[in-house]
Automatic annotation (TrEMBL):
PANTHER family xref list: D-TAGATOSE-1,6-BISPHOSPHATE ALDOLASE, D-TAGATOSE-1,6-BISPHOSPHATE ALDOLASE SUBUNIT GATY-RELATED
Pathway(s) the chain acts in: Carbohydrate metabolism; D-tagatose 6-phosphate degradation; D-glyceraldehyde 3-phosphate and glycerone phosphate from D-tagatose 6-phosphate: step 2/2
UniProt-listed InterPro entries: Aldolase_TIM, Class_II_FBP_aldolase, FBA_II, Fruc_bis_ald_class-2, TagBP_ald_KbaY/GatY
EC number: 4.1.2.40
Note describing how the cofactor binds: Binds 2 Zn(2+) ions per subunit. One is catalytic and the other provides a structural contribution.
Binding site for Zn(2+) 1: H82, H179, H207
Keywords: Lyase, Metal-binding, Zinc
Residues engaged in binding Zn(2+) 2: D103, E133
Coiled coil: none
Single GO MF descriptor: zinc ion binding
Cofactor(s) of this protein: Zn(2+)
Name of the protein in its database record: tagatose-bisphosphate aldolase
Species annotation: Cytobacillus firmus (Bacillus firmus)
One annotated GO biological process: D-tagatose 6-phosphate catabolic process
Amino acid sequence: NIVNTIDMFRKAQQEEYAIPAFNIHNLETFQVVVDTAAELNSPVILASTPGTISYSGGDYLVSIGNAAAKRYEIPIALHLDHFESFEEIKKYIEFGFKSVMIDASHHPFEENVKIVKEVVDYAHEYGVSVEAELGRLGGVEDDLVVDEKDAKFTNPEQAGKFVELTGIDSLAVAIGTAHGLYKGEPKIDFDRLDEIRSMVSIPLVLHGASDIPDTMVKRTIELGICKVNIATDLKIPFSNAVKQYFTENPDANDPRKYMTPGKEAMKKVVEEKILMCGSNGKA
Ligand code: 13P
Ligand code: ZN
Ligand code: NA
């Protein structure tokens, strides 16, 4: 069955690689991620935003996840990504999700702590691991839109306090990445990450990892990033390949035909990202 992220993170921290977390949206993208992770013998996290859950159905996703876990030997975690509602989190824990992110990063520190702690206390009763964010990423992730002027870097000292006060299992940090594509070159504050690392011993999470050069992501992994979130870099090649298929075959109407080039294009990127994270062969 699908698992929480505790064991996969422990091993990743010890051996200094990261677990890739891929945002999926439907059966096809789910298949590409688990099939490719299994081929490369990589542990993997499949992430669903609130919008994806309402689109695909949390119960369907858990069933697919458990089917994949039965089919393959690799550790597979299904993760709620950027959930803001405790009630929703409770509901999907009941459905079988074993890993959740409570995103209260838009609230002031004290309020963020209070909301997160409540989720942690609840989730841990059910063996569910919890991620939370301190600081705030800019950019667009499914239905989450944060203006650049509202983005805020993680304060290292606060990060230490935040982890202590909440009891979370992993911490999402804001160090210059943004959700989606960058206007110019992404500027990552590696020194800040290093400082956060010195304050925090739990696994650190890099959101917004699409559209960042591999060398930069690898540097963040060396500095303590343990989970790398990737969404946009999968969505673009998938949809481009489907568009191209329809351009070449304007009368196509068989989903088994027109979805396949999308899956193939996405598979290449999933492979690259697993290699970037260094999680291949680590299942
Ligand atoms: P990207 O779309 O930039 O890859 O961000 C993904 C993410 O952080 C999901 O939570
Ligand atoms: Zn994110
Ligand atoms: Na990004």
